[in-house]
């Protein structure tokens, strides 16, 4: 690889010390590198990273921060189809493979073209109010449909390919990708799935029942979740959240249609370890 681009989280890299070290190292080895700071943007076509600023011919995007920063960057630049490598400056990371102590070794592998590329599926969610679309976004980890306001369970009606599946009285519903299976879904009792698989997981959040489990669907299935009425037939308010970041408000009767995105994220792997080996290390 010869042309690099860095997306950096200034909250994790104070004064851009690590960012500047990487730029200097790459340029010392005769490589090109540009930098963009990830900053929250409230309106427009992107959330944190402007994909149009990434030069044509860029071969690798280095994301400095943690899993959250990588999720944000992936959603913004996915359609550029450039492989990404996360450098973890935070705590435990499943996505950001490289830690502070391994940065130079990782860069050497990239320069020597010693890497693998994993394709990670994403989800798109389209929120409908009647026959009108009120919001749409994309997620690498998960789309969460939850209640808003007082602490009480809400009814969620679930459909698969327009066929009624079931209803949950719960705090919310998580629709996750295999990548997201080690995130919020896992903490709610969902299974761990190999990240390069292609399937969709449905996991209820604190369901008011004794026998509710996660359900796994093939990648081509289209899942619809409708926010039901509350107790005493009152209108409920909720939120559709994408990767724990952007949110779209919903009310009773609104529905979100979730399906596999047309684009996938390319994640660089340097350690050549299997998913089982990585999982064992994380669990030790």
Structural features, described:
The chain has 284 residues and is α+β, with helices and mostly antiparallel strands. It has two domains: 112 residues, 3-Layer(aba) Sandwich (Rossmann fold), CATH 3.40.50.10330; 141 residues, Sandwich (Tumour Suppressor Smad4). It is 16% helix and 40% strand. The strands form three sheets. A six-stranded antiparallel sheet has the order 6-5-16-13-8-9. It has a six-stranded antiparallel sheet with strand order 12-11-10-7-14-15, with no helix packed on it. The radius of gyration is 20 Å and the shape is elongated.
Task: Sum up the structure in keywords.
284 residues, alpha+beta, Rossmann fold, 2 domains, six-stranded antiparallel β-sheet, 5 helices, 16% helix
- DSSP E strands, number: 16
The share of residues in extended strands comes to 35-45%
Superfamily at the CATH H level of the largest domain?
Probable inorganic polyphosphate/atp-NAD kinase, domain 2
CATH third-tier fold name of the largest domain: Tumour Suppressor Smad4
Which structural class do the helices and strands define? alpha+beta
Low-confidence regions: none
Percent helix among the residues? Answer: 10-25%
Structure annotation, total helices: 5
State the end-to-end distance. Answer: 34 Å
Kindly report the spatial arrangement of strands forming the biggest sheet: 6-5-16-13-8-9
How large, in whole angstroms, is the Cα Rg?
20 Å
**Name of the top-level CATH class of the largest domain:** Mainly Beta
Largest sheet: 6 strands, antiparallel
Assembly type of the chains comes to single chain
Report the CATH architecture of the largest domain: Sandwich
**Mean pLDDT figure:** 90
Keywords: ATP-binding, Cytoplasm, Kinase, NAD, NADP, Nucleotide-binding, Transferase
Protein name: NAD kinase
InterPro entries: ATP-NAD_kinase_N, ATP-NAD_kinase_PpnK-typ_C, NAD/diacylglycerol_kinase_sf, NADK
Subcellular location: Cytoplasm
């Amino acid at each position: 690889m010869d042309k690099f681009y860095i997306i950096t989280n200034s909250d994790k890299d104070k004064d851009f010390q690590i960012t500047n070290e990487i730029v200097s190292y790459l340029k010392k080895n005769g490589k090109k590198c540009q930098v963009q700071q990830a900053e929250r943007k409230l309106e427009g076509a992107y959330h944190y990273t402007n994909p149009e600023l990434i030069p044509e011919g860029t071969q690798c995007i280095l994301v400095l921060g943690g899993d959250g920063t990588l999720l944000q960057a992936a959603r913004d630049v996915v359609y550029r189809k450039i492989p990404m490598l996360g450098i973890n400056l935070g705590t435990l990371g499943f996505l950001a493979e490289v830690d502070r102590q391994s940065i130079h070794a990782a860069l050497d592998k990239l320069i020597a073209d010693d890497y693998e590329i994993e394709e990670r599926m994403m989800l798109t969610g389209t929120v409908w109010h009647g026959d009108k679309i009120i919001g749409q976004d994309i997620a690498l980890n998960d789309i969460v449909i939850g209640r808003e306001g007082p602490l009480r369970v809400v009814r969620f009606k679930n459909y698969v390919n327009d066929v009624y599946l079931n209803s949950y009285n719960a705090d919310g519903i998580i629709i996750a990708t295999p990548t997201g299976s080690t995130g919020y879904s896992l903490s709610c009792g969902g299974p761990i799935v190999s990240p390069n698989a292609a399937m969709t997981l449905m996991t209820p959040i604190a369901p008011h029942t004794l026998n509710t489990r996660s359900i796994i669907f093939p990648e081509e299935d289209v899942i619809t979740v409708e926010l039901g009425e509350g107790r005493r037939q009152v209108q409920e308010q909720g939120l559709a959240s994408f990767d724990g970041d952007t949110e779209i408000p919903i009310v009773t009767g609104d529905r979100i249609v979730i399906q596999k995105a047309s684009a996938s994220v390319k994640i660089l792997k340097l350690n050549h370890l299997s998913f089982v080996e990585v999982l064992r290390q994380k669990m030790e």
